Amino acid sequence: MESSTENKAHSPKSSRTLVVMAKAPRPGRVKTRLTQSLPVEAVTELYCCLLDDTMALARSLGSLLGSTEVAIMCPPSDVEELQRLARSAVGVVAQKGEGLAAGLTSVFAHFAAAGRQRVVAFNSDSPHLPVSVLGSAFAALAAHDLVVGPTEDGGYYLVGAKVAHPTLFDGDGMGTQSALEVLLVRARELQLSVGFTDPFYDIDGEGDLTRLATELQLAPARAPRTAAWLKEWGRTVAQSRTGTGDL
Q: Which of 123, 222, 235, 246 makes a 20 to 30 Å CA pair with 104?
């Protein structure tokens, strides 16, 4: 029997569904590469801001395209916490299996099976994406079987399809610099036509944060919670380098 949140996410109201791949913001489980340069607690706080702004971005897509359902796909243990964070505004669905590959497979198995024509999944740390990029992903699916948003480091931040392809995300490569190449090889094997959105960057390391902070200084309204956190983070870094922050 499905939970009420799954029923909500499974109710076909639109031909477009945008799914955010997320985790509950628990210390040591999110954005782990950033812990090489930031305290775990700070990384967890940052992820909360990124997720909140990414969800706001996702919900804003409706003003561009019209009716578009927004949902979250996450590990089973994270459903209740993410439902609280989402304030019941979207459906939260538990993935089947562990890891990102299983999560993406679950997205299309769950939502494409509901009869939707176009389903797009993207990262939970993407508040820097222009909403037009999400719109172009859905538009690309009118002419292609698959749409992919490449990252500058060889991965991808977005993937969309009109039907489920159970073997598309199987095997190695997820989360590596060859992830995009592996995905495109599988797409060719399945004889899927592929469209692309604009390349963007992931929020993985300190350099990415510096880049995002520079962008959001010019346009903080794009991701207000993240912009405020990065502004404070910048002050902390500056103080630590000058020694004025020492107690």
A: 222
